[in-house]
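pls read this protein.

:::
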Amino acid sequence: MTDSNRWNYVTALAIVGLVIVSLFAIARPATMVSGPETSAQETITVNGAGTVETAPDEAILVLAVTNQAKTADQAAKDNADTASRVMDAILGLSSLSKPITKADITTIDYSLTPVYSYNKCANTTELRPPENTKLEVICTPTTPQLVGYAVRNAIKITVKDMDSIGKVLDAATVAGANEISGITFTFTSLTYTALKEQALKNAIQDASGQAQTMATTLGVHITGIVSVNPSYGYQPYINYKPAEVTSGASTPIQTGTLQVTVNVQVIYKISA
């Protein structure tokens, strides 16, 4: 065999070998190389609750002046005069430890509506039924008659001197306020923030105590915290003014207490 033929023979064998290797690689299924397996994290979930209860330091009063007159102009004028007297009386309470200012009074509703009469009848007819039965009267209603206009002006008053709520109500009614919707006791934003923080601390301490008890009972150790999810809430208290006010004495108002509650869900990491 010549050198040229030998070279061609070796080259052919090499090509055949590459083809066989390629076919083997294609036919062989692919495999994924995975790292070390990660074990599932072991946790316990606890719901804690924290509550702080104290007297409110703010009250929202809703008062209104309502009146009626034959004309819209007269009804509006009479209402404006009375409402002005009510506001002046409230702003003039100089004995309050925290006086009420114009910024504490807000108009929340004003309406002027026509008033109709539906009670009159026309074309009254008497029907005489058989003997020993009652007389029946048929009344044909007339078209509703316009008899005047009604005006309602409602205001919201923010009071921060809790001992003066009765004085504010009395001054307003004496000046002409003839509708009192109620009183909402609440907290100022500064007080609410402080109470919320304290309630949150109480809730977390409650959750921590529960978690420690559970871990000890289960024979495991708490190694960390996965997440903390708080939720806040408190319910303002509404107290309605008595129907009658004793003359010469301030209207008694009992504020009671309000609660600020925080619920928190804490997920703890544990290990054996």
In short: Residues 9-39, 242-247 have pLDDT under 50 and may be disordered.
